[in-house]
Write a structure and sequence with these properties.
homodimer, about 725 residues, alpha+beta, Butyryl-CoA Dehydrogenase, subunit A, domain 3, Butyryl-CoA Dehydrogenase, subunit A, domain 2, six-stranded mixed beta sheet, three-stranded antiparallel beta sheet, 24 helices, 14 strands, EC 1.3.3.6 (chains A, B), acyl-CoA oxidase activity (chains A, B), flavoprotein (chains A, B), Acyl-CoA_oxidase (chains A, B)
């Protein structure tokens, strides 16, 4: 910074951040410049008594683990855990490793681990804590995820007691920074096709880890480029029992030291390459690893789900190779669960910044000559408030997911079905919320104009870091296909309960429906009786049961249509079946997306029903309606084409959304304040009140100037200048 | 990079970039692994004779200035003009300043300037050259834009001969890096409200430049933080003729030296602050400037449109202060025109990377055990090909915009009306293409998975740099409102030509239409006669006249609806009128968006009609149809609600879009190759053929292993292991 001239004299020259509230308390970031009266939106039904009880709502949003979240936020309020924009990559990596060790020293990073390792066997609580790290620095969060969520967790879940004793203490303390070596350059989301081999050699009682071709190199691995000294390596386990024919037992994991713990030099046979600079998360040293016939003791196999005897005989508690593979991978669901939560946290932080700024920033003079705050402009509300509603929905859905996760991992409800449900829900919500977060952060940055583009206002950095969340731990598009396939399987399951006659009738009905699609719309959803009065229509769309019926019906119908289209595949050749499936891929992905939207809406609705304060509940109902009717508006063509809404009723959707925006606008600041982030979490100058003070100074100056006797008069009020 | 182990032995260990083709020639980036036969999509109408003449299409895409674009690309193929990912900010800034001077030394940066300064008075050609800089480094492009497009251009367009003689040579050579000091912290897009004052002091014959309050500090200015030694400063010109009442003549520009050209120290009275790290474009030293009663000679006023005499008398060739303001700002339209072109170039580069990778990358085994290339998956096509169509449309529209710009600035067609048309078109297209570029680059990055997130593959860097294009040189949302207001004015103009009876009839008809909206759909667009056969319907939607009718009708209807809703504003109080306008803001922005889409579609259609090669033309027709019907699909609810499409016909839109995707898929590589970027422009490892080679090696290895006698057999083909 270079300054040789005095700063302008009017008012405070620059921002002073308000004193940080005690960590864990709900800060009031409401600036003094926000009008305290509700602007008159012209809607006579605007309920002026509706008001958000911000601390109570903040409590609701803290979910199942309020204390753990508060503690984690208190830690993340400390400078030492903050990302520093613009730090060179090498320094950023070192800083994050130090932060990781500082976190370990604080304790409680072990919550998910057994008590004998200092843990609490608390799986849900551990994730809740972990998710909060994102406001410190997403690099810290993901490095923590690599170390404890992937590397140590793989030892815990895929290994047995002797592995735990040998390796968990150093993994938990970060004395051994670890690599989770699953993804290969040639195979990301299709883990079953990886090429690395783990071959048993009975002569030496060793496993030989090998990278047979370049595309089989491990890639994008956190800790691989610099810090990692050991890795859990996934490969195809090959053994030849008693010297017989070698058998490929599919994907297994083995613990492999990769660097000397003293010198950090790569061990013999290990190759590594730095992935270099990335679009974000540059505090993590992602890199490649490859193996040239690297030998480790047979006992290094993490063999909970598959053991090799000294004579090469393979055994497993799970007979089916397919089920075994999915059981091993299933332990990784926590990654997706926690990314869902972290994405919600990042979107909340972005909205807190943009809404606060939108309530202070003034632009374009109104009829009285005074400039309006941005959030009073209808288009600004259209851009931000639906994302606020979506982020609320995503947050409530995440808490439900976290509860389901804890039920399974605590053993309270650990069945094949509950695991499958959990995996489907995690895949659907992770895809939905990571994409939402990117869209939200980008819109927030644009809504803050040039100020939003400055690193000091956080939005661009958060967006850059969150970018890869949409393709890692399962590419979102691939995840939605998994969800879609599960929906198809459930649909088939339902049909199986019907007898043949009923199925035939169902098919006939569907054919009749299809014929009707070609005629003008006559069909109406039974629960949504058509009435002519748009006011009453809007009232009905506001109804919880109507919204649910519309959203459920869409998912079910979309899935049924795909199932019907795929019916011929059962008797077709594999090639024709594959082509048929490819032809339905887009429709299946869209159905999965609709399913995720429905889950979120249901969670939001359940949360509204838990809300007791009437004012808060009223505002949350509006926000839930904005989310629900926003979805209906977005998919309006589908509802029209499939006869679920008449044109008359459909036309009321947008005007009702507009009314909701006007109703919610006065509560926008409360709704972002309830996220509970203080200035030490947001760390965005434009969300500190600085903009409001600047605007106040400018307006004071303008008023003083107007009042002055020697004030210049505008040219248009004088005689025309000489031409 | 640390490597202690030999790399895997099969095949080439890493990518070797193919030899770069001579700059200016069309490179063939088609990798050998792309299937040369068209995959069977099951569509009997797939025309196997359709084929793109890539060099001819590349020629068409080079537009009006093929030689200038080729020359600029040849320069940008040189290492010295390339951005270096991860360069620290300070070094990046220095590098870009050096690049700027190297460009100046190459000559031809002066094309837009008069011949006596080494220029060619070639306004359109100059922009075409400038746009191509984006593939070198967007920071270089924007720094060039600040120096020549804003700073030097302001001297040229707002000054007179003596200003040109005094300051243009040093501005053009970059001996004086210059600042274009218009935007203030408190005022971005609303330039008319800036607070900086330029007050004439007759006692010393000087102008006093002053920043009266902090929000009036100049902000986000390129060259302000470090390099700039002079600035064109915009402020409100105040003079008191012959000692009378001071008059505020509105926004004018003055030339102000800000740093010592020898020591680079700030001059007395000048304050500056660095904007610091940004979300992108970190090769540019954006910063703030403020002025504490800084005095410059009266003659420093850039006074083409407003002069101050020594006695303080103000005169201007333009009597109306409003028209004067817009005339002065109108010279800045070239910024928007060139950003439109640069955004298209960046989107093209992204698509070239993602489509090439999608044609080589394999994932998930198909029915024959072989993995498919990504672009054969229907969802991958759905993600990328509509963006390819949109980018083609945006490119053709840009060439039309550039022609309109050159017509005005060359004086060939410089009327008030043609200037207004140009400004509207530039605002609409700049908003559309900069948003398209962000969406496209993000989708491309996601379509490349983890590889897309690595800086070495360019996509994340391009997206980060392009981010601010959507809010600078006019925030896109503000620009769309300007477009919308122009559409409203045109609409009013049309109504004025009708007599009162006709207007009354029109209003009555519209009311009748509105009534019909509430009933099931009966209305059909006259040009789209409803027929039952979906095949024929699709055929009709494919028809150019039908697409045009649908797109034109939507814009006109939306504008007319807003106009009708605003009608009461004419007789209302300013407050009520403002509220009414705010209530229509979203609809007006959407109408402007639809207008931009229509312009693009028209330009695409005109380009198709200029295409003579039948195979190329056929493919371009499909691509244009994909763009046009993609728009109809996107806005399907509108067409249904407003009775423009029956449900039956609307249902054919998506299936026809799917058919177009299958038809275009085999031509995707040709369509991105025709963009004419070689590896030296794309500089993305994944677009060099490296991925194809890796995949080939992996497949060779798998085949060899299957053939080997001692190959492991999959467990599922053996007896079950012991449990």
């Amino acid at each position: 910074m270079t300054t040789t001239a005095p700063r302008p004299t009017a008012g405070a020259p620059a921002a002073h951040a308000p004193a940080a509230p005690a960590p864990g308390t709900v800060p009031s970031t409401v600036p003094s410049t926000v009008p305290s009266t509700v602007p008159d939106t012209g809607d006579p039904r605007l309920d002026r008594d509706s008001a958000v009880d911000v601390p109570a709502l903040a409590g609701l949003l803290l979910g199942h683990y309020p204390e753990l979240r508060r503690q984690a936020r208190a830690l993340m309020a400390q400078d030492r855990f903050h990302g520093v924009p613009g730090l060179p990559m090498a320094e950023h990596r070192t800083r994050v490793l130090e932060q990781l060790r500082a976190l370990a020293a604080e304790g409680d990073v072990h919550r998910a681990f057994p008590t004998r390792f200092g843990g609490a066997d608390d799986h849900g609580g551990s994730l809740a804590r972990f998710e909060e790290l994102v406001v410190g620095d997403p690099s810290l969060q993901i490095k923590a995820g690599v170390q404890w969520g992937l590397f140590a967790s793989a030892i815990l879940h895929l290994g047995t007691d002797r592995h735990h004793d040998a390796w968990l203490p150093d993994a938990l303390s970060v004395d051994v920074p670890g690599v989770f070596a699953m993804t290969e350059t040639g195979h990301g989301s299709d883990v079953s096709a990886i090429g690395t081999t783990i071959t048993f050699d009975p002569a030496t009682d060793e496993l030989v880890v090998h990278t047979p071709f370049p595309a089989a190199r491990k890639d994008y691995l956190g800790n691989a480029a610099v810090h990692g000294t050991a890795a859990v390596v996934f490969g195809r386990l090959v053994t030849a029992p008693r010297g017989g024919q070698p058998v490929d037992h599919g994907v297994h994991a083995v613990y492999v030291p990769i660097r000397d713990r003293g010198t950090n030099a790569l061990l013999p046979g290990i190759g590594s390459e730095d992935d270099g600079l990335k679009g974000g998360l540059n505090g993590i040293d992602n890199g490649r690893l490859w193996f040239d016939h690297v030998r480790v003791p047979r006992t290094n196999l993490l063999d909970r789900y598959g053991q090799v005897a000294p004579d090469g005989t393979y055994s497993s508690p799970i007979a089916s190779p397919g089920r075994r593979f999915f059981t091993m991978l299933g332990t990784l669901v926590q990654g997706r669960v926690s990314l869902d939560g972290a994405a919600v946290a990042a979107a909340r932080a972005g909205l807190a910044v943009a809404v606060t700024y939108g309530n202070q920033r003034r632009q374009f003079a109104g009829p009285g000559g005074d400039e309006g705050v941005l959030l009073d402009y209808a288009e600004h509300q259209r851009r931000l408030l639906p994302l606020l509603a979506e982020t609320y929905a995503a947050g409530f859905a995440h808490e439900d997911l976290l509860a389901a996760f804890d039920d399974v991992f605590s053993g309270r409800n650990d069945t094949t079905e509950s695991r499958e449900d959990l995996e489907t829900m995690a895949a659907a919500l992770k895809a939905a919320s990571t994409w939402s977060a990117l869209r939200t952060l980008q819109t927030c940055r644009e809504a803050c104009g040039g100020a939003g583009f400055l690193a000091t206002n956080r939005l661009v950095g958060l967006r850059a870091d969150l970018d890869v969340y949409v393709t890692f731990e399962g590419d979102n598009t691939v995840l939605l296909q998994l969800v879609g396939k599960r929906l198809l399987a459930d649909h088939a399951q339902e049909l199986r309960h019907l007898d043949a006659t009923k199925v035939a009738r169902l098919v006939a009905e569907r054919a009749a429906d299809a014929a009707r699609y070609r005629t003008p719309l006559h069909r109406a959803l039974q629960t949504v009786a058509d009435v002519g009065d748009p006011r009453r229509s809007a009232g009905q769309l506001r109804d919880t049961a109507t919204q649910r019926a519309l959203l459920v019906d869409r998912v079910e119908t979309m899935v049924a249509e795909v199932a019907t289209a795929l019916r011929p595949a059962r008797k077709a050749s594999p090639e024709v079946a594959a082509a048929l499936f490819n032809g339905q891929q887009h429709a299946l992905v869209e159905a999965a997306r609709a399913h995720a939207e429905l889950i979120r809406w249901e969670s939001f609705t359940a949360a509204v029903e838990r809300t007791t304060d009437p004012g808060t509940r009223q505002v949350l109902v509006w926000l839930r309606d904005l989310y629900g009717l926003g979805l209906v508006e977005q998919h309006l063509a589908w509802y029209l084409l499939n006869g679920r809404l008449s044109a008359g009723r459909a036309r009321t959707v947008t005007s009702y959304v507009d009314r909701l925006l006007a109703r919610l606008r006065p509560h926008a600041q409360d709704l972002v304040d309830a996220f509970g982030y203080g200035p030490e979490h947001l760390r965005a100058e434009i969300a500190t009140g600085a903009e409001g003070r600047r605007q106040d100074e400018a307006r004071r100056w303008a008023r003083a100037r107007r009042a002055a006797a020697d004030a210049p008069v505008p040219e248009r009020r004088t005689a025309r200048p000489a031409g």
